[in-house]
Amino acid sequence: MTAKIIDGKAFAEALRIRIANHVDRLKSQHGITPGLAVVIVGTDPASQVYVSSKAKQTAEVGMNSFKHELPADVLEAELLSLIAALNADPAVHGILVQMPVPKHIDPNKVIETIDPAKDVDCFTPANVGKVQIGLPGPVSCTPLGCLMLLRDELGSLEGKNAVIIGRSNLVGKPMMQLLLRDNCTVTVAHSRTQNLPEVVRAADIVIAAVGRPQMIKGDWIKPGAVVIDVGINRVDAPERGEGKTRLVGDVDFAAAAENAAAITPVPGGVGPMTIACLLANTITTASLINGLVPPSDLTA
Ligand SMILES: Nc1nc(=O)c2c([nH]1)NC[C@@H]1CN(c3ccc(C(=O)N[C@@H](CCC(=O)O)C(=O)O)cc3)C=[N+]21
Predict the structure, then answer these.
(1) If you take atom 1 of ligand 1, which residue's CA is the nearest one?
(2) Which of 85, 223, 248, 286 counts the most CB atoms within 10 A of its CB?
(3) Fold assignment, 30-116
(4) For the segment 248-276, what is each residue's pLDDT rounded down to a tens digit?
């Protein structure tokens, strides 16, 4: 079998068109222009590129985009007071502080300071709790993107055996909640799991979120499984020339594609969905802040 390649880039483009339509509706019917503020501390080149593409896509769907660049040595108190100002600004419906922040800044203090009503990353305890019990609100961007791709591929996820590899607060744990809400049987495997290949071989749905290049081998994939690769790892690619690199996922893509029914590529799979879901969450928070019901096609 050779797997269908799930085109996350195309899915994200289609999602952004739906988002743009919701922006138009909020503007024309309610006089609301959703606004997303992105805060970046320091000048890490990878982070810069990534933040620019967020700002560009935010503007393209018709939202207001606010970008705040702070020097790498900014005082923690200064960052926290910027967040407080964004919390109070009625033009801002979403706040994202690009992670990681420099070592002298406590990320937990940053997250605690963000108003949960504007927490489009779904990092605050209040919103993590809402996802767990199924209340409306923003949903972690990467897991939401994975869920949308899975529903599109499989229709109902009910009764599927889903194995998540990785237990981070960012991906593994929120993914577990979302799959459970969709009636999967969920296993969360991690670095201490015994017989990982056997655990993965039982999966109808594999979510790879470990952050180790090509760790999940092709012969671990059950024939017909759907594989979602969350990993984005930059590795050396001497075959492309001296000093060149390329992006690979957490799954050995070519070998896994021999067994899977469908698989996401890296790049062009989950990554573009993460950014589109950030915009989707900004529609959700802008709606809730204004007492409106958030659109059901943009959330879990
Ligand atoms: N507060 C916060 N929220 C985040 O959501 C957040 C963050 N901080 N810090 C950094 C990580 C990383 N992240 C990515 C999203 C999309 C791609 C993406 O679109 N990747 C392209 C490839 C891009 C390339 O070529 O480098 C792809 O997979 O096709 C990558 C990385 C969000 N993050």
Answers:
(1) 98
(2) 286
(3) Rossmann fold (3.40.50)
(4) 999 999 999 999 999 999 999 999 999 99
